[in-house]
Write a structure and sequence with these properties.
alpha/beta, globular, three-stranded parallel beta sheet
């Protein structure tokens, strides 16, 4: 009889996980309109803290305002957003055994949508889409093609977001 490794501890570099169960990032569309976490995130991630998973990811978190999928997606480009995440991370750390990760993201040509229960089409008011190419996602507007300088700035936004996530101990 073979035994599964699913429930066995696992180490990835210096991080030890209780098991190999991972909760992937799932869009919650529950941030406020400024991209800040809300009490929904406290409840949702708090519940996953005690789920028995080895690793739980926070939903895709935009590195700049135009990088959000919707105007209700999380962001991590300013201090207000890190301040809103901090108590959630602290609660999670106190009550859960799972490690907590974050998916830094930019929606690119798939951004500026309404939340699914509001129709899932273009957000009102929407924002200009940017992408490495001017190729539209099916059914969406053609995005502005990013210049080399804009791509460099985007890479900087990801680095800045990675530094900001440390402020909330994530």
């Amino acid at each position: 009889m073979s035994r599964t490794k699913l429930f066995s501890p696992f180490a990835l570099r210096s991080v030890a996980f209780d098991n190999r169960i991972v909760v992937s990032p799932m869009s919650q569309y529950s941030a406020d309109h400024e991209g800040c976490a809300t009490s929904w995130h406290l409840m949702y991630l708090g519940n996953l803290a005690i789920s028995g998973a080895g690793l739980v990811f926070v939903e895709a978190t935009a590195v700049e305002p135009r990088g959000r999928g919707s105007n209700r997606c999380l962001g991590i480009w300013n201090d207000a957003q890190t301040a809103a995440l901090r108590p959630i991370v602290e609660f999670y750390s106190l009550h859960g055994g799972a490690k907590l990760g974050i998916q830094l993201a930019h929606a690119g040509r798939k951004g500026s949508i309404a939340v699914p229960w509001e129709g899932g089409t273009e957000a009102e008011p929407g924002w200009l889409l940017t992408s490495p190419s001017a190729i539209a996602f099916p059914g969406r507007p053609v995005p502005e093609e990013m210049s080399a300088a804009a791509l460099t700035e985007m890479a900087k936004s990801f680095g800045d977001a990675a530094r900001l996530r440390r402020r909330c101990r994530l």
